[in-house]
Amino acid sequence: MTATAKRTTQGIKPGGRVLCAMSGGVDSSVSAALLKEQGFAVIGAMMRFWPDDKRSDTFDTCCSPDAAYEARRVAEQVGVPFYLLDYREQFQRHIVGPFLAEYAAGRTPNPCVNCNTKVKFDELVKKAKMLGCDYVATGHYVKRVEEESGAVAFHRGDDPRKDQTYFLWGTPRDALPYILFPVGEMEKPRVREIAEQHGLLTAQKAESQNICFVPGTVQDFVAEYVPQQSGQMRDIHTGEVVGEHLGTQFFTLGQKKGLGLFQSHLVRHVVHLEVGSNTVWVGEYEDCLWKGLKALTPNYLIDLTDLPSELEVQVRYRTAPVRARVLHADEHGFELEFDEPQFAVAPGQSAVLYAGPKLLGGGLIADHVRALPV
Protein backbone atom coordinates (compact mmCIF):
# COMPACT_ATOMS: atom_id res chain seq x y z
CA MET A 1 0.00 0.00 0.00
CA THR A 2 1.42 3.38 -0.95
CA ALA A 3 1.83 6.34 1.42
CA THR A 4 -0.82 8.17 -0.56
CA ALA A 5 -3.22 5.25 -0.13
CA LYS A 6 -2.72 5.29 3.64
CA ARG A 7 -3.67 8.95 3.84
CA THR A 8 -6.84 8.56 1.79
CA THR A 9 -8.41 6.21 4.33
CA GLN A 10 -7.10 7.69 7.56
CA GLY A 11 -8.74 5.98 10.50
CA ILE A 12 -10.34 3.34 8.24
CA LYS A 13 -9.18 -0.27 8.35
CA PRO A 14 -9.01 -1.87 4.90
CA GLY A 15 -11.31 -4.77 4.29
CA GLY A 16 -14.66 -3.03 4.42
CA ARG A 17 -17.25 -3.09 1.65
CA VAL A 18 -17.43 0.15 -0.35
CA LEU A 19 -19.94 1.40 -2.91
CA CYS A 20 -17.84 3.62 -5.19
CA ALA A 21 -19.80 6.17 -7.21
CA MET A 22 -18.30 6.09 -10.72
CA SER A 23 -19.16 8.90 -13.12
CA GLY A 24 -16.98 7.80 -16.01
CA GLY A 25 -14.40 10.45 -15.14
CA VAL A 26 -10.80 10.08 -14.07
CA ASP A 27 -11.33 11.07 -10.40
CA SER A 28 -13.89 8.37 -9.62
CA SER A 29 -11.95 5.85 -11.74
CA VAL A 30 -8.81 6.39 -9.66
CA SER A 31 -10.89 6.26 -6.47
CA ALA A 32 -12.12 2.78 -7.36
CA ALA A 33 -8.60 1.62 -8.27
CA LEU A 34 -7.07 2.93 -5.03
CA LEU A 35 -9.73 1.36 -2.84
CA LYS A 36 -9.31 -2.00 -4.55
CA GLU A 37 -5.54 -1.70 -4.16
CA GLN A 38 -5.95 -0.97 -0.45
CA GLY A 39 -7.91 -4.16 0.14
CA PHE A 40 -11.49 -2.94 0.20
CA ALA A 41 -14.29 -4.94 -1.37
CA VAL A 42 -15.40 -2.43 -4.01
CA ILE A 43 -18.70 -2.23 -5.87
CA GLY A 44 -18.78 0.28 -8.70
CA ALA A 45 -22.05 2.10 -9.34
CA MET A 46 -23.26 4.93 -11.54
CA MET A 47 -26.45 6.85 -10.94
CA ARG A 48 -28.54 7.15 -14.09
CA PHE A 49 -30.06 10.61 -14.42
CA TRP A 50 -30.73 10.96 -18.14
CA PRO A 51 -34.32 10.25 -19.29
CA ASP A 52 -35.31 7.85 -22.06
CA ASP A 53 -36.06 10.82 -24.31
CA LYS A 54 -32.65 12.41 -23.68
CA ARG A 55 -32.29 15.59 -25.70
CA SER A 56 -29.22 16.25 -27.79
CA ASP A 57 -26.44 18.15 -26.04
CA THR A 58 -27.63 17.07 -22.57
CA PHE A 59 -25.89 14.56 -20.32
CA ASP A 60 -23.17 14.36 -22.97
CA THR A 61 -20.14 14.83 -20.72
CA CYS A 62 -20.83 13.66 -17.17
CA CYS A 63 -23.74 11.38 -16.27
CA SER A 64 -24.14 10.30 -19.91
CA PRO A 65 -24.76 6.93 -21.59
CA ASP A 66 -21.20 7.09 -22.96
CA ALA A 67 -19.88 7.87 -19.47
CA ALA A 68 -21.78 4.85 -18.13
CA TYR A 69 -20.08 2.67 -20.76
CA GLU A 70 -16.67 4.07 -19.81
CA ALA A 71 -17.36 3.58 -16.10
CA ARG A 72 -18.28 -0.04 -16.75
CA ARG A 73 -15.09 -0.54 -18.77
CA VAL A 74 -13.00 0.97 -15.95
CA ALA A 75 -14.70 -1.32 -13.44
CA GLU A 76 -13.65 -4.26 -15.62
CA GLN A 77 -10.09 -2.93 -15.73
CA VAL A 78 -10.00 -2.53 -11.94
CA GLY A 79 -11.70 -5.88 -11.41
CA VAL A 80 -14.82 -4.83 -9.53
CA PRO A 81 -18.53 -5.38 -10.24
CA PHE A 82 -20.51 -2.49 -11.70
CA TYR A 83 -24.16 -1.50 -11.51
CA LEU A 84 -26.20 1.25 -13.17
CA LEU A 85 -28.68 2.58 -10.61
CA ASP A 86 -31.88 4.26 -11.79
CA TYR A 87 -32.32 7.71 -10.20
CA ARG A 88 -34.20 9.42 -13.03
CA GLU A 89 -37.31 10.17 -11.00
CA GLN A 90 -35.34 11.55 -8.03
CA PHE A 91 -33.22 13.71 -10.34
CA GLN A 92 -36.26 15.30 -11.95
CA ARG A 93 -37.96 15.86 -8.58
CA HIS A 94 -34.97 17.14 -6.60
CA ILE A 95 -32.85 18.83 -9.26
CA VAL A 96 -34.52 19.85 -12.52
CA GLY A 97 -37.89 20.91 -11.07
CA PRO A 98 -36.43 23.09 -8.28
CA PHE A 99 -33.87 24.55 -10.73
CA LEU A 100 -36.63 25.98 -12.91
CA ALA A 101 -38.75 27.02 -9.93
CA GLU A 102 -35.87 29.02 -8.45
CA TYR A 103 -35.31 31.00 -11.65
CA ALA A 104 -39.04 31.65 -11.88
CA ALA A 105 -38.88 33.03 -8.33
CA GLY A 106 -36.06 35.45 -9.16
CA ARG A 107 -33.28 33.41 -7.56
CA THR A 108 -30.09 31.85 -8.95
CA PRO A 109 -29.86 28.17 -7.98
CA ASN A 110 -26.86 25.86 -7.88
CA PRO A 111 -28.11 22.43 -9.02
CA CYS A 112 -24.83 20.68 -8.15
CA VAL A 113 -25.39 21.48 -4.46
CA ASN A 114 -28.87 19.96 -4.62
CA CYS A 115 -27.57 16.91 -6.47
CA ASN A 116 -24.94 16.17 -3.84
CA THR A 117 -27.25 16.94 -0.94
CA LYS A 118 -30.44 15.17 -1.93
CA VAL A 119 -29.27 12.46 -4.30
CA LYS A 120 -25.61 11.46 -4.03
CA PHE A 121 -25.11 11.75 -0.28
CA ASP A 122 -28.64 10.93 0.77
CA GLU A 123 -30.17 8.45 -1.64
CA LEU A 124 -26.84 6.80 -2.47
CA VAL A 125 -25.83 6.33 1.17
CA LYS A 126 -29.20 4.69 1.80
CA LYS A 127 -28.66 2.40 -1.20
CA ALA A 128 -25.20 1.47 0.05
CA LYS A 129 -26.60 0.43 3.42
CA MET A 130 -29.26 -1.65 1.66
CA LEU A 131 -26.49 -3.43 -0.26
CA GLY A 132 -24.60 -4.16 2.94
CA CYS A 133 -21.81 -1.68 2.26
CA ASP A 134 -19.85 -0.02 5.02
CA TYR A 135 -18.98 3.10 3.04
CA VAL A 136 -19.72 5.21 -0.01
CA ALA A 137 -16.74 6.62 -1.92
CA THR A 138 -16.64 9.41 -4.50
CA GLY A 139 -14.00 11.24 -6.52
CA HIS A 140 -14.61 14.60 -4.85
CA TYR A 141 -11.59 16.71 -3.90
CA VAL A 142 -12.50 16.76 -0.22
CA LYS A 143 -10.56 15.49 2.79
CA ARG A 144 -12.18 13.15 5.30
CA VAL A 145 -10.73 13.90 8.72
CA GLU A 146 -11.35 11.81 11.81
CA GLU A 147 -11.07 14.09 14.82
CA GLU A 148 -9.78 13.19 18.29
CA SER A 149 -13.36 12.96 19.53
CA GLY A 150 -14.05 10.28 16.91
CA ALA A 151 -16.29 12.57 14.89
CA VAL A 152 -15.75 12.79 11.13
CA ALA A 153 -15.33 16.18 9.48
CA PHE A 154 -14.91 17.32 5.89
CA HIS A 155 -11.95 19.58 5.13
CA ARG A 156 -10.95 21.40 1.96
CA GLY A 157 -9.06 19.29 -0.55
CA ASP A 158 -5.32 19.81 -0.84
CA ASP A 159 -5.65 21.12 -4.40
CA PRO A 160 -7.16 24.62 -3.93
CA ARG A 161 -8.14 24.78 -7.61
CA LYS A 162 -10.22 21.63 -7.28
CA ASP A 163 -11.58 21.79 -3.73
CA GLN A 164 -15.26 20.77 -3.80
CA THR A 165 -16.38 21.20 -0.19
CA TYR A 166 -18.56 24.10 -1.35
CA PHE A 167 -20.96 21.60 -2.92
CA LEU A 168 -21.17 19.33 0.13
CA TRP A 169 -22.46 21.63 2.88
CA GLY A 170 -25.87 19.97 2.73
CA THR A 171 -24.59 16.46 3.39
CA PRO A 172 -26.64 14.89 6.21
CA ARG A 173 -24.45 15.00 9.29
CA ASP A 174 -25.16 11.41 10.17
CA ALA A 175 -23.84 10.35 6.74
CA LEU A 176 -20.34 11.81 7.24
CA PRO A 177 -18.77 8.68 8.82
CA TYR A 178 -19.86 6.58 5.85
CA ILE A 179 -18.22 8.67 3.10
CA LEU A 180 -14.68 8.27 1.73
CA PHE A 181 -12.74 10.55 -0.63
CA PRO A 182 -9.76 8.57 -1.95
CA VAL A 183 -8.35 11.43 -4.08
CA GLY A 184 -9.15 14.25 -1.64
CA GLU A 185 -5.52 14.71 -0.61
CA MET A 186 -4.15 14.77 -4.15
CA GLU A 187 -3.71 17.31 -6.89
CA LYS A 188 -5.18 16.68 -10.31
CA PRO A 189 -1.89 15.93 -12.12
CA ARG A 190 -1.15 13.21 -9.55
CA VAL A 191 -4.61 11.68 -10.09
CA ARG A 192 -4.01 11.51 -13.85
CA GLU A 193 -0.57 10.01 -13.23
CA ILE A 194 -2.08 7.22 -11.12
CA ALA A 195 -4.70 6.60 -13.81
CA GLU A 196 -1.92 6.26 -16.40
CA GLN A 197 -0.01 3.87 -14.15
CA HIS A 198 -3.11 1.68 -13.87
CA GLY A 199 -3.81 1.93 -17.59
CA LEU A 200 -7.29 3.36 -17.02
CA LEU A 201 -9.02 4.47 -20.20
CA THR A 202 -10.24 7.68 -18.50
CA ALA A 203 -6.71 8.87 -17.65
CA GLN A 204 -6.80 11.86 -20.02
CA LYS A 205 -10.54 12.40 -20.21
CA ALA A 206 -11.50 16.07 -20.23
CA GLU A 207 -13.54 17.49 -17.37
CA SER A 208 -17.15 18.56 -17.73
CA GLN A 209 -17.87 22.21 -16.95
CA ASN A 210 -21.54 22.64 -17.87
CA ILE A 211 -24.78 21.81 -16.08
CA CYS A 212 -25.39 18.25 -17.25
CA PHE A 213 -29.10 18.56 -18.11
CA VAL A 214 -28.95 21.98 -19.79
CA PRO A 215 -28.44 22.12 -23.57
CA GLY A 216 -26.88 25.38 -24.71
CA THR A 217 -27.30 28.30 -22.33
CA VAL A 218 -29.20 28.43 -19.06
CA GLN A 219 -31.26 31.35 -20.41
CA ASP A 220 -32.42 29.33 -23.43
CA PHE A 221 -33.28 26.35 -21.24
CA VAL A 222 -35.26 28.44 -18.77
CA ALA A 223 -37.09 30.17 -21.64
CA GLU A 224 -38.54 26.81 -22.71
CA TYR A 225 -40.22 26.18 -19.37
CA VAL A 226 -40.85 29.57 -17.73
CA PRO A 227 -43.24 31.79 -19.74
CA GLN A 228 -41.82 35.08 -20.95
CA GLN A 229 -43.54 38.25 -19.82
CA SER A 230 -42.49 41.75 -20.78
CA GLY A 231 -41.62 44.03 -17.90
CA GLN A 232 -39.77 47.18 -17.00
CA MET A 233 -36.23 47.87 -15.92
CA ARG A 234 -36.04 50.69 -13.36
CA ASP A 235 -33.33 52.72 -11.70
CA ILE A 236 -33.01 51.82 -8.00
CA HIS A 237 -32.58 55.48 -6.95
CA THR A 238 -35.09 57.35 -9.07
CA GLY A 239 -37.59 54.71 -10.14
CA GLU A 240 -37.14 55.88 -13.74
CA VAL A 241 -37.84 53.31 -16.45
CA VAL A 242 -34.47 52.73 -18.14
CA GLY A 243 -35.20 49.62 -20.18
CA GLU A 244 -37.50 46.68 -20.89
CA HIS A 245 -37.11 42.92 -20.53
CA LEU A 246 -38.90 39.60 -21.07
CA GLY A 247 -38.88 38.25 -17.51
CA THR A 248 -36.94 38.44 -14.27
CA GLN A 249 -35.96 34.76 -14.74
CA PHE A 250 -33.33 35.82 -17.28
CA PHE A 251 -31.30 37.90 -14.83
CA THR A 252 -29.13 37.47 -11.76
CA LEU A 253 -27.79 39.96 -9.23
CA GLY A 254 -24.68 41.83 -10.34
CA GLN A 255 -25.30 41.22 -14.03
CA LYS A 256 -24.29 44.11 -16.29
CA LYS A 257 -24.20 42.56 -19.76
CA GLY A 258 -27.25 42.06 -21.94
CA LEU A 259 -29.48 44.46 -20.02
CA GLY A 260 -30.74 46.29 -23.11
CA LEU A 261 -30.88 49.72 -21.48
CA PHE A 262 -32.42 52.60 -23.40
CA GLN A 263 -29.19 54.53 -22.81
CA SER A 264 -26.74 51.82 -23.80
CA HIS A 265 -23.68 53.84 -22.78
CA LEU A 266 -24.64 53.64 -19.09
CA VAL A 267 -22.96 51.00 -16.93
CA ARG A 268 -25.58 49.46 -14.66
CA HIS A 269 -25.86 46.26 -12.67
CA VAL A 270 -28.90 44.25 -11.66
CA VAL A 271 -29.54 45.13 -8.02
CA HIS A 272 -32.88 43.52 -7.23
CA LEU A 273 -35.42 41.25 -8.95
CA GLU A 274 -39.02 42.02 -8.02
CA VAL A 275 -40.92 39.01 -9.32
CA GLY A 276 -44.38 40.18 -8.22
CA SER A 277 -44.28 43.25 -10.47
CA ASN A 278 -41.90 41.65 -12.98
CA THR A 279 -39.44 44.51 -12.44
CA VAL A 280 -35.68 44.40 -12.80
CA TRP A 281 -34.07 47.09 -10.63
CA VAL A 282 -30.65 48.32 -11.72
CA GLY A 283 -28.04 50.57 -10.18
CA GLU A 284 -24.34 51.25 -9.95
CA TYR A 285 -21.64 48.91 -8.67
CA GLU A 286 -21.91 50.26 -5.13
CA ASP A 287 -25.62 49.40 -5.08
CA CYS A 288 -24.68 45.72 -5.41
CA LEU A 289 -22.50 45.65 -2.31
CA TRP A 290 -23.93 43.63 0.57
CA LYS A 291 -22.86 44.24 4.16
CA GLY A 292 -24.10 40.83 5.20
CA LEU A 293 -26.55 38.06 4.37
CA LYS A 294 -29.35 35.93 5.68
CA ALA A 295 -29.53 32.24 4.84
CA LEU A 296 -32.40 29.78 5.17
CA THR A 297 -32.76 25.97 5.22
CA PRO A 298 -29.40 25.56 6.97
CA ASN A 299 -27.46 22.36 7.50
CA TYR A 300 -24.86 22.29 10.25
CA LEU A 301 -22.09 19.69 10.34
CA ILE A 302 -21.24 20.56 13.95
CA ASP A 303 -23.34 21.20 17.04
CA LEU A 304 -24.98 24.60 16.72
CA THR A 305 -23.58 25.53 20.14
CA ASP A 306 -20.07 25.01 18.72
CA LEU A 307 -20.56 27.40 15.81
CA PRO A 308 -17.87 30.10 16.20
CA SER A 309 -18.93 33.72 16.45
CA GLU A 310 -16.42 34.59 13.73
CA LEU A 311 -15.81 32.38 10.74
CA GLU A 312 -15.30 32.35 6.99
CA VAL A 313 -18.09 32.21 4.43
CA GLN A 314 -17.95 31.43 0.72
CA VAL A 315 -20.84 32.76 -1.35
CA ARG A 316 -19.86 31.38 -4.78
CA TYR A 317 -17.89 28.34 -5.87
CA ARG A 318 -15.23 30.32 -7.71
CA THR A 319 -14.70 33.04 -5.09
CA ALA A 320 -12.46 33.07 -2.07
CA PRO A 321 -14.01 32.80 1.41
CA VAL A 322 -14.30 36.02 3.42
CA ARG A 323 -14.36 36.75 7.12
CA ALA A 324 -17.74 37.29 8.72
CA ARG A 325 -19.37 37.62 12.12
CA VAL A 326 -22.35 35.47 13.11
CA LEU A 327 -25.19 37.74 14.23
CA HIS A 328 -27.70 34.93 14.71
CA ALA A 329 -27.96 31.22 13.99
CA ASP A 330 -30.62 28.63 14.72
CA GLU A 331 -32.28 25.64 13.07
CA HIS A 332 -34.18 27.96 10.71
CA GLY A 333 -31.20 29.87 9.33
CA PHE A 334 -28.35 32.23 10.11
CA GLU A 335 -27.40 35.87 9.64
CA LEU A 336 -23.87 37.09 8.97
CA GLU A 337 -22.10 40.44 8.78
CA PHE A 338 -19.10 40.60 6.43
CA ASP A 339 -15.83 42.20 7.50
CA GLU A 340 -15.96 43.98 4.14
CA PRO A 341 -19.00 44.45 1.85
CA GLN A 342 -19.34 41.80 -0.86
CA PHE A 343 -20.49 42.28 -4.44
CA ALA A 344 -23.74 40.75 -5.74
CA VAL A 345 -24.48 38.06 -3.18
CA ALA A 346 -27.12 36.21 -5.19
CA PRO A 347 -30.26 34.79 -3.53
CA GLY A 348 -30.56 31.06 -4.23
CA GLN A 349 -26.83 30.49 -4.13
CA SER A 350 -25.14 28.84 -1.16
CA ALA A 351 -23.49 30.53 1.81
CA VAL A 352 -20.97 27.92 2.96
CA LEU A 353 -19.37 28.18 6.39
CA TYR A 354 -15.77 27.29 7.29
CA ALA A 355 -13.36 27.41 10.20
CA GLY A 356 -10.07 27.38 8.34
CA PRO A 357 -10.18 24.28 6.12
CA LYS A 358 -13.03 22.66 8.07
CA LEU A 359 -16.51 22.66 6.55
CA LEU A 360 -19.08 23.73 9.16
CA GLY A 361 -22.26 23.71 7.07
CA GLY A 362 -24.19 26.26 5.09
CA GLY A 363 -27.54 27.54 3.89
CA LEU A 364 -29.35 29.06 0.94
CA ILE A 365 -28.94 32.82 0.58
CA ALA A 366 -32.20 34.72 1.02
CA ASP A 367 -32.94 38.04 -0.66
CA HIS A 368 -32.21 41.19 1.30
CA VAL A 369 -34.91 43.82 1.70
CA ARG A 370 -34.24 47.00 -0.20
CA ALA A 371 -35.96 50.37 0.05
CA LEU A 372 -37.45 50.67 -3.43
CA PRO A 373 -38.53 54.02 -4.94
CA VAL A 374 -42.25 54.65 -4.90
Automatic annotation (TrEMBL):
It is an enzyme of class 2 (transferase). The record marks H140, Q349 as: Interaction with tRNA. It is found in: Cytoplasm. The active site is at C115, C212. It comes from the Bacteria. Its EC number is 2.8.1.13. ATP binds at A21, M22, S23, G24, G25, V26, D27, S28, M47, G139. Residues 219-284 form the tRNA-specific 2-thiouridylase MnmA-like central domain. Its main location: cytoplasm. One of its GO terms (cellular component) is cytoplasm. Residues 162-164, 316-317 are annotated as: Interaction with tRNA. Keywords: ATP-binding, Cytoplasm, Disulfide bond, Nucleotide-binding, RNA-binding, Transferase, tRNA processing, tRNA-binding. Residues 291-365 form the tRNA-specific 2-thiouridylase MnmA-like C-terminal domain. One of its GO terms (biological process) is tRNA wobble position uridine thiolation. It catalyses: S-sulfanyl-L-cysteinyl-[protein] + uridine(34) in tRNA + AH2 + ATP = 2-thiouridine(34) in tRNA + L-cysteinyl-[protein] + A + AMP + diphosphate + H(+). One of its GO terms (molecular function) is tRNA binding. Disulfide bonds join C115-C212. PANTHER family: MITOCHONDRIAL TRNA-SPECIFIC 2-THIOURIDYLASE 1, TRNA 5-METHYLAMINOMETHYL-2-THIOURIDYLATE -METHYLTRANSFERASE. HAMAP family: tRNA_thiouridyl_MnmA. Belongs to the MnmA/TRMU family. Catalyzes the 2-thiolation of uridine at the wobble position (U34) of tRNA, leading to the formation of s(2)U34. This is tRNA-specific 2-thiouridylase MnmA. It comes from Deinococcus psychrotolerans. The gene is mnmA.
